[in-house]
Amino acid sequence: MKSAERSASPSTGSRRTWFAVLPFVVVIVVLGGLYAVVAGRLPDPLATHFTGDRADGFSSAPGFVAGCLAVLLVLGVGAGLSVRLREHTPEVPWLIAGSCATAAGLGYVMCLTLLANVDVPDPAAVRQPLWQTAVSLGAALLAGVLGRLLAGAAPAAPRRARGATPRLDLPDGATAGWSRTISSPPLVVLGVAMLGAGVVLGVLAGWLGGAGLLLGGVAVLPLASVRVTVDRHGLALSPALLPYRVRLRRIPLDRIVEAGSRRIACFAEFGGWGYRIRAGGSGLVLRSGEGIVVRLTNGREFVVTVDDAATAVALLNTYTDRARARQGG
Predict the structure, then answer these.
(1) 3-state secondary structure the chain
(2) DSSP strand pairing (301-305 vs 281-285)
(3) How far apart, in Å, are the Cα atoms of 207 and each of 56, 188, 191, 216?
């Protein structure tokens, strides 16, 4: 029975990976086929960017299609890689739903842009009705729901053995440090994709139009890989891609009541990845799984998902006890 379960696991992971990639493959095929059919009926340049319903950005038809195909290819590979790396985590079905929604929404807009330019002698006269935005969002939502249904149930969370040590046996006067780096492949892919899409949009439709995506990529990437450190000063979070002294968050010992560790469900508890804020607390959640939970003196909690959380918690509680003893003395 155990061997059968092991042999079934890789096929399930491969199936889910293809579920994430397939929507982008379909959109690439449809967009390429549509361009092949209407290429001779398109103006040069093509209206590719709109403010309201009026065209205000233009590019060559081959350049527009090549840029769209490149974005779809990058997103498709990123979606497949994300699902493959997370195949045993509860967020896999939601990753698949997100890939379906993204492919459908982008594909609708890209194909619509081509069709709007067909047989138009003056690209400046091309109009894109605002209600099409609602249609594209509806298509994305419908595809996301369908993708979530096809993805099936979330993988069962692996059980971890209990027995975390609440305090570290550290001799008086001795000091120690603990550090781990936690990364989120989906956020890496998202950040790189936003930067790439921003560059493509900037080249094709003007840098003002691509500025939002470029800024989004710059904001996302520092959160994609974070160094978590526990030392005699408290708990610190630093972007792994930036210099060590740059801090996302530092919690000193005098603000900590106690630390604990437990399994954290990324979507069920925080609604997604990244730096999250909710009632009663906040946290840096880059995946589901083991994490540090710090109870603060203001009654709130701070959470960070990271491997070997039990060791970090034990050391943090030891330093907190020392700081409290010094204050009491």
Answers:
(1) CHHHHHHHHHHHHHHHHHHHHHHHHHHHHHHHHHHHHHHHHCCCCEEEEEECCEEEEEECHHHHHHHHHHHHHHHHHHHHHHHHHCCCCCCHHHHHHHHHHHHHHHHHHHHHHHHHHCCCCCHHHCECCCHHHHHHHHHHHHHHHHHHHHHCCCCCCCCCCCCCCCCCCCCCCCCCCEEEEEECHHHHHHHHHHHHHHHHHHHHHCHHHHHHHHHHHHHHHHHHEEEEEEECCEEEEEECCCCCCCCCEEEEHHHEEEEEEEEECHHHHHCCCEEEEECCEEEEECCCEEEEEEEECCCCEEEEECCCHHHHHHHHHHHHHHHHHHHHC
(2) parallel
(3) 13, 23, 18, 14
For residue 18, give the nearest of 95, 89, 88 by alpha carbon: 95
Residue type, 294: V
Q: Give the Cα separation of 183 and 156 in Å (integer).
A: 22
pTM above 0.70, yes or no: no
Per-residue tokens: 287: 């995946």
Give pLDDT tens digits along the chain (329 positions).
333 333 334 455 567 778 788 889 898 898 888 888 888 888 888 887 777 767 777 888 888 888 888 888 888 888 887 777 666 666 678 778 888 888 888 888 888 888 888 888 887 777 877 777 788 888 888 888 888 787 776 555 444 444 444 677 777 777 888 989 888 777 777 777 777 777 776 766 666 667 777 888 788 888 888 899 999 889 999 888 776 677 888 999 999 988 988 888 877 777 777 888 877 788 888 888 889 999 988 888 999 999 888 889 988 998 888 888 887 64
Hey, what are 293's tokens? 């939970």
The sign of the dihedral angle between the CA atoms of 18, 19, 23, 26 is: positive
CA atoms within 13 A on the CB side of 155: 22
